[in-house]
């Protein structure tokens, strides 16, 4: 399995090994990193760094943290993307936390519904959401928020 997979052009979903691989970061011109952990270090070469402080321990508190962070996460990833930067979104394994953040970002970028986007992510990175989406409640919350509140106002 690769340490990172390009989910859409310029946006990668990966694990801690991709995040710590200076040669990989340079080769893929990564300009922003979203670190979905409370404790993993950032590589020194990355200037635009964001931490999404969530543990993947299935505790209600951590699911709630992801839910509360989701609008801000979506905005910050979208801002980096619109600035033209290549982005790595990662957690320890590139399976759960970072896949949830990728889904939240893609909802905002594309306007698609979460199940469609989660399937797309799984096609590009087969270990994403295995065996199930640990942060499904957070993803569903943001999907509903975006389609019922954010998106309708964005068009007016």
Shape: globular
How many strand units?
5
How far apart are the termini? 44 Å
| Class based on secondary structure composition and strand pairing | alpha/beta
In helices, the fraction of residues equals 40-55%
Pfam families: DSPc
GO molecular function, one term: phosphoprotein phosphatase activity
Domain Tyrosine specific protein phosphatases: 72-136
Keywords: Hydrolase, Protein phosphatase
Can you tell me about this structure?
- This protein has helices spanning 16-20, 22-27, 60-82, 97-110, 114-124, 136-155, and strands at 4-8, 11-14, 30-35, 48-51, 86-90.
- The chain is α/β, with parallel strands linked by helices and 156 residues long.
- The chain has one domain (4-155): Protein tyrosine phosphatase superfamily (Protein-Tyrosine Phosphatase, Chain A), CATH 3.90.190.10.
- The protein has a five-stranded mixed β-sheet.
- A hairpin with a 2-residue loop joins strand 1 and strand 2 (11-14).
- Helix 3 (60-82) crosses helix 4 (97-110).
- The model has no long low-confidence stretch (mean pLDDT 95).
- It comes from viral metagenome.
- One of its GO terms (cellular component) is cytoplasm.
- This is Tyrosine specific protein phosphatases domain-containing protein.
Write a brief structural summary.
By secondary structure, this protein is an alpha/beta fold. The chain has helices spanning 16-20, 22-27, 60-82, 97-110, 114-124, 136-155; strands at residues 4-8, 11-14, 30-35, 48-51, 86-90. It has 6 helices and 5 strands.
């Amino acid at each position: 399995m690769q340490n990172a997979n390009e989910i859409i052009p310029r946006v990668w979903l990966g694990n801690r090994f991709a995040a710590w691989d200076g040669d990989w970061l340079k080769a893929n011109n990564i300009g922003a990193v979203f670190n979905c952990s409370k404790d993993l270090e950032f590589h020194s070469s990355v200037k635009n760094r964001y931490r999404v402080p969530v543990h993947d321990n299935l505790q209600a508190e951590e699911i709630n943290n992801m839910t509360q962070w989701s609008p801000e996460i979506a905005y910050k990833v979208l801002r980096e993307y619109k600035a033209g930067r290549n982005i790595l979104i990662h957690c320890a394994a590139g399976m759960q936390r970072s896949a949830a953040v990728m889904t939240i970002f893609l909802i905002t970028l594309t306007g698609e519904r979460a199940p469609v986007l989660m399937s797309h992510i799984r096609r590009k990175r087969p270990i994403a959401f295995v065996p199930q989406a640990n942060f499904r409640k957070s993803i569903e919350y943001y999907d509903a928020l975006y389609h019922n509140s954010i998106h309708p106002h964005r068009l007016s």
